[in-house]
UniProtKB/TrEMBL annotation:
Pfam family for this entry, one: Usp
Entry protein name: Universal stress protein
Coiled coil: none
InterPro entries documented for this protein: Rossmann-like_a/b/a_fold, Universal_stress_UspA, UspA
Organism: Actibacterium pelagium
Limits of the UspA domain: 1-134
Similarity-based family: Belongs to the universal stress protein A family.
CDD domains with a match to the protein in the record: USP-like
Length: 136
């Protein structure tokens, strides 16, 4: 069905296995699946106070968590980028020529209706097909 699938993973949410499995079921036999984590660095003064060494420690920990989440999913490429979650996901998908995004979403709360969750923003702004897995 799809040749290039992007699976954004929030490393603290418990739906990674399910979104990766959904991507596997949607991929062509020779399709490519990329698991992407967007590492958001605090802005402004907080970032300056953290220092590059502390930021690198966070990135290293994120890499380890991402490797753990993708373990057992043969053929899934793992990537980490720095940026703002929804915008980075949409930009990465467009620049990489992805034809599908499979993203997990929690049950929406009141704040999601007012400002929108990452998944909702990806759905609104992505130029490709987006499948949303709503975890229970």
């Amino acid at each position: 069905m799809f040749q290039k699938i992007l699976v954004p993973l929030a490393l603290t949410h418990g739906v990674s296995e399910k979104t990766l499995a959904a991507a596997k079921s949607l991929a062509d036999a020779d399709g490519k699946i990329t698991a992407l984590h967007v590492y958001e660095i605090p802005q402004g003064t907080v970032s300056a106070l953290m220092g590059e060494e502390r930021i690198q420690q966070g990135l290293d920990a994120a890499w380890e968590a991402l490797k753990e989440k993708t373990k057992g999913f043969d053929g899934v490429e793992a990537e980490i980028i720095r940026g703002h979650a929804y915008r980075s996901i949409v930009d990465y998908a467009e620049s990489g020529g992805y034809d599908c995004i499979v993203i997990g979403s929690h049950k929406p709360g009141l704040s999601d209706y007012l400002i929108g969750s990452t998944a909702a923003r990806v759905v609104r702004h992505a130029s490709c097909t987006v499948h949303v897995y709503r975890g229970g």
